[in-house]
């Protein structure tokens, strides 16, 4: 039996995000593990307004999705260098090549000190108008 204190699980909601529409957290950190829930390309939250996509294109939505994931990482004390695994969910198989171009360009600009995260891409249905969703698993320390 260990004398170590139990680790506390902390929900993460950065100021750019609204309270989730169901009983889940945008991100959760426990010890050195941080899980970012699936994020979409919604613009930062505006009190009293419904969430709105960054735009109709895959590029606009993907870049905003990255910003939303990053906001949760930072809220939990993490960065892209701490991300071990990313899962990308696309609504259209025809977007795969474009997504890879956006992804590669974005991470080339991040000046990462660690190797790239592992990644899985799958195809799903998302609410009307949304083209991409991304979640991430980070390990700190």
How would you summarize the topology of this molecule?
Elements: E1 9-12, E2 27-30, E3 33-40, H1 58-75, E4 83-90, H2 96-108, E5 118-123, E6 132-139
Helix pairs in contact: 1-2
Report on the structure:
The protein is of the alpha+beta class and 141 residues long. The protein has two helices and six strands. The protein has helices spanning 58-75, 96-108, and strands spanning 9-12, 27-30, 33-40, 83-90, 118-123, 132-139. A six-stranded mixed sheet has the order 1-2-3-6-4-5, with helices on one face. Helix 2 links the parallel strand 4 (83-90) and strand 5 (118-123). It is globular, with a radius of gyration of 16 Å. The protein starts with 8 loop residues before the first strand and ends with a strand.
